[in-house]
Each structure stands twice: as structure tokens, then as C-alpha cells.
Amino acid sequence: MTKIIDGKLISAAFKEKIAEAIISLKAEQNITPGLAVVLVGADPASDVYVRSKGVATKKAGMNSYEHRLPAETTEEELLALIENLNNDDAVDGILVQSPVPDQINYQAVVDVIDPNKDVDGFHPINAGNLLIGSQGFVACTPLGCSILLKHTLGDLTGLDAIIIGRSTIVGKPMAMLLLQQNCTVTIAHSRTKDLDKKCAQADIVVAAVGRPEMVKKDWIKQGATVIDVGINRMGSTETGKAKLVGDVAFEEVSEIAGAITPVPGGVGPMTIACLMYNTLKAACDRRDLDIPDVFDEFL
Ligand code: NDP
After folding, report:
1. CATH 3.30.1360.40 fits domain 140-268
2. 0.85 exceeded by the pTM?
């Protein structure tokens, strides 16, 4: 029978450990980690993400600093804010919500974030550290997918994995994580030939494309594990909430996959949990404190 990988449940257990670690950090070191989230403009989806990050931060026992800037903010103004946050000792993690308005170069902004506070793991130093297998911050979504795979499959050594999508925030770091875990990795993209046939050979399929229900049943090998990163908004539900659909045709793929993440309730909750983890890690690393080993069972 197909196993539904419950990201809500797994992220709840992970967040519980994070909250416990933060209680100890406060009690033993008098430290409360702080996460600063910057939103430029009023994109409705970004607004929801920023709000939920703020709620999760406070729930974990950390300080949340929200900076909401008008859509006409210049790159210079944003860079000046980042510089202040870099120098603010109360701030352990800095995240700039994407997308940013056209007048701002997102990568230029990421480049000035202190790599030790780059809890999104997007700074070139952290991306490079992942590539060479050094310590650093790993991007939250691929880290969350990796935790789900470990939870579902245990040791991934020798498995064939295909990642559909080669973005800097999901596809490429995901490939590095799976390579580190001794998978044989294929990275597919919009120019890949015979994608369905390549997918059908994989033990692990990670779909990070942004195309609703693109991955079909006949793309999947019997018993494969399918991780659906995609979040596609398809109108609204009866209660007026946005209806979310993944990149995988969930119903039909469930008939053949060994395990599969739902959308919503799969990768999404893990992304936020990993942001909390990275912020805790930043608070510890900046002060040369060891992060508790209770996280080994997840990572
Ligand atoms: P990008 O748009 O940056 O990248 C999409 C990738 O998909 C590109 O590499 C593109 O190829 C590839 N692609 C597009 N069309 C096809 C196709 N027909 N066949 C094969 N590959 C294709 O997206 P992101 O990586 O930022 O996000 C991907 C999805 O994941 C989105 O739905 C996004 O909303 C979601 N997401 C979810 C998160 C979560 O927390 N659950 C977090 C981040 C993203 P090429 O490079 O050739 O253009």
C-alpha cells in the first residue's frame, strides 16, 4: 500500500525538538534566537508566507522581527536595512522574501547578507559549502525534502534519484544533498529529453517544477518514492482559500508509488520547520555553541 508521507506530522516532531532546544538555550545561556524577515511590496502569496514564518518563529520561542517595506523601496534602501540587520546582535537569521520588485536585484541583496545569518542558505558561500560538503546553511526546502526521504527510506545509498527542476533554491541544492547521501542523481529541466522515461527508472522522484500535476502515473516506477515540491494555485476552495495543487498528479501516482508527499501537507511544513532549525543553528554557531545532537535522528 502507498505510504502518504505526512509532512505535518514529521515537521511537528522536528519543531518540538527545536522548541525544546530553545528553552535550554534560554535557561542555560540566556539567549533567545531572533529571525528577521523582510518583505518588499504586497504580493499576497508572499504576505501569507511571511505571516506564517512569523507565527512559527514565535511558536518556537524565538523573536520574530518583520520588516515590511513599500513596493517602491530602492535597492540601496534595502541593502542599508540588510547592513543594519547584519550588525544587529539580536538578529541571528535574515531572510528576504522573494520575489522582490523589479527595481531590486534579488541576488545582489542575498550577496550582502552575512553568510553566518543566511538562514535561507542562498548566499554564494553557503551554496558553495554545500557543493564541497562543508558546514553551512542548507536551503530550507531541499533540507526538508531530505529529512522526509530519510524518515521514509532510511539509508539512501545506491538509489537512483531524479530531480525535475534545476533552480538555485530547490533543484540544485537537492541534487547536492542526494549526492552526499550516495544516490545516483539525474537533474532534469525544461530541455531534458524523454523525461517520462528517465523518471520511470528512478527510485526517488523529486518534482520542483511549478507545473500543476505534470508528473503522471506512467512516469513512475512501481514502489518509487515521490516528493512533490510544487505549489500551484488553482482557483479557490469553497471556503475561499487558495486551492493548492502539486507538480505530481497525486491521485493516479498514489496508485503506483511506494510513498508520496501530498500537497498541501508534505514539503511545505518541512520548509518552515527547517527555517526554524537554521535560525537555531545560526544562534548556536555565532556563539560557538554546539547544536544539540537530538537533531541527528532527523538530519
Ligand atoms: P523555478 O521556476 O525557479 O524552476 C523551475 C524548474 O523547472 C526549472 O529548472 C525549469 O527548467 C524546470 N521546468 C519547467 N518546465 C519544465 C518541464 N516542462 N519539464 C521539465 N522541467 C521543467 O521554480 P522553483 O524551483 O523556485 O520552484 C518549483 C516549484 O516548487 C514551484 O511550484 C514553487 O512554488 C515550489 N516551491 C515550493 C516550496 C515549498 O516550500 N514547498 C519552496 C520553493 C518552491 P529550466 O531551468 O530549463 O527553465
Report:
1. no
2. yes
